[in-house]
Amino acid sequence: MTLLENEEVLALNKPPGVSMATSGREGKSAREAVARLLKACGQPREEELWLVHRLDVGTSGVVLLAKNFESHCALSQAFQSGGVRKTYRALVWGRPRPAGGVIEERLGRDPRDGRKMKVRADGKRAVTRYETLSRLPGVTDLRLFPETGRTHQIRVHLSARGHPIVGDALYGGASRWHGVRIPSQRRALAGVAHPLLHAERIEIPEMGIDVRAPLPEDYVKVLSALGLASLAPRPQSQ
């Protein structure tokens, strides 16, 4: 699904399950990652597009692709300099307390499992702000604002606080039933096959970019099954 397109950038709503990983020959693998994303979004193109940033395979939401070398440089610089404002949604187990605040924990590679990151005193600085949108049976719907861009940052920060993302088996988000007593609600949560983490919005004020992506269908279905009456967009925090 195309969210925005102009002469500089193409913004797509990435569905969960699409890998944007690159390895080996970086140029070739980056092109392959772009091709996978375009195919998943029903946007086959022959023109060259430049990968600016990535989302984890299970994460849905806004992805920006540069349409020329100059815009690729400008977008990359914005991401590296902190000129990008990112907003995420996540459904987590339990009830974070306080309901809103800042998680600041340094992150580094887990020496016991190379796939994972973990909180480490010698890790890189990582900061995530969050606020509660809805408290539901056994889970909480959060909006999050990462101020840094570390690998798996939101997933690790939430897990470290004891509130892993629903469906995130890598960081302890497999089924937890405390507070979920209705069978239909248990079935809805048990059917989640990936972390319910969604890149909801990207803003780059200096480039006039402000892109939002609607929640994926499976996220909406789970919220509905848990009894959330209204799924209308809520005001963005400043």
Task: Describe this protein's structure.
This protein has a single domain, classed as Pseudouridine synthase. The chain is globular. The two termini are 27 Å apart. It is built from five helices and twelve strands. The chain has 238 residues and is of the alpha+beta class.
Report the radius of gyration as a whole number of Å.
18 Å
Unreliable residue runs: 232-238
Number of helices: 5
The residue-averaged pLDDT reads 89
Largest sheet: 10 strands, mixed
Content of β-strand: 25-35%
Order of helices and strands: EEHEEHEEEEEEHHEEH
Protein structure class: alpha+beta
Note the main attributes of this structure.
single chain; 238 residues; alpha+beta; Pseudouridine synthase; 10-stranded mixed sheet; two-stranded antiparallel ribbon; 12 strands; 22% helix; globular; disordered C terminus
Write the layout of secondary structure elements.
Elements: E1 2-5, E2 9-14, H1 26-40, E3 50-51, E4 60-66, H2 69-81, E5 85-93, E6 100-104, E7 107-109, E8 117-119, E9 127-136, E10 139-146, H3 153-160, H4 183-190, E11 197-204, E12 209-212, H5 217-225
Parallel strand pairs: 4-11
Antiparallel strand pairs: 1-2, 2-4, 3-4, 5-10, 5-11, 6-9, 7-8, 9-10, 11-12
